[in-house]
Amino acid sequence: MNGKIGSVLVAGSGIGGMQAALDLAESGFKVYLVEEGPAIGGTMAQLDKTFPTNDCAMCTLAPRLVDCGRHPNIEKLTYSELLSLEGQPGHFRARVRKKPRFVDPAKCTGCGECAAACLVRNRGYFEADEPEPLDLEADQLAEIERLVQEHGSEPSSIVPVLQGISAKYRWLPPGAVRRVSEVLGLPLARVLRIATFYNMFSFEPRGKHLIKVCLGTACHVKGAGRILDTLSRELEIQVGETTKDRRFTLEAVRCLGCCGLAPVVTVNDDVHGKLTAGEFLKVLDLYPG
Ligand code: FES
Hints:
The chain is an alpha/beta fold. Helix content is 37%, strand content 19%. The protein has three domains: 7-98, FAD/NAD(P)-binding domain (3-Layer(bba) Sandwich); 124-197; 209-286, Glutaredoxin (3-Layer(aba) Sandwich), CATH 3.40.30.10. It is built from eleven helices and eleven strands. The strands form four sheets. The chain has a four-stranded mixed beta sheet with strand order 9-8-10-11, with helices on one face. It has a three-stranded parallel beta sheet with strand order 1-2-5. Strand 10 and strand 11 form a beta hairpin. Helix 1 crosses helix 2 (57-70). The structure holds FE2/S2 (inorganic) cluster. Residues 214, 216-219, 255-259, 262, 264 line the site of FE2/S2 (inorganic) cluster.
């Protein structure tokens, strides 16, 4: 298949490394793509948007990931370290150490089920003779029992049970999450994985009223940034934080779908539009502690 002689090693499989590997592979070289981490993609895979165009990072990355994964001229050496490189142009010798993965890569589908069931990772949970205190009030415990009775104790009840706890306390206390894992017979890691998947669940105490300031383009142009700054200053909290009296939690979001009312701020389910920062501060009086 190769029209060219020799092979190339590309160290690092970020967006630059992947593109270099693809260009070299397309021109006929055999490419060894060496990546220290367990998967190719680099830092860009962890980003939502990229500077300065605000393009979706995954939209840029995904086609290259797929092409690198399928290209017959690219051999991916993930979880591998480049130990040494000797020689001269045209004749290098590289030593690469492949780290053990403890799974069979030919069979692994990346489902993550093994992590949830891992006896080593969940040792504290399985060692029943040394249980950590649940750190739950009696009423919280009773509420969890009630929710489990209402929704059933099958593993499939996990989301409604967590929703019930979240609706009652406005966050998921750590003790409650542990109790849910015990009652439903699920590993704690699995409960946490499900809970962290949904952004409706918070692991921090939240305020009675949730303020969302839209920073989408239409609202940004109409001064939403000033409203957010004013709220942050007046409530003495940053985005994502809750006031000391647990009255308000402040969040910034992108486009609430009612751009005609820009700038838009919602408090709980109420939509407030076309207000200045000063006017919006008065609106907060409608939401007591
Ligand atoms: S940009 Fe704010 S509602 Fe659309």
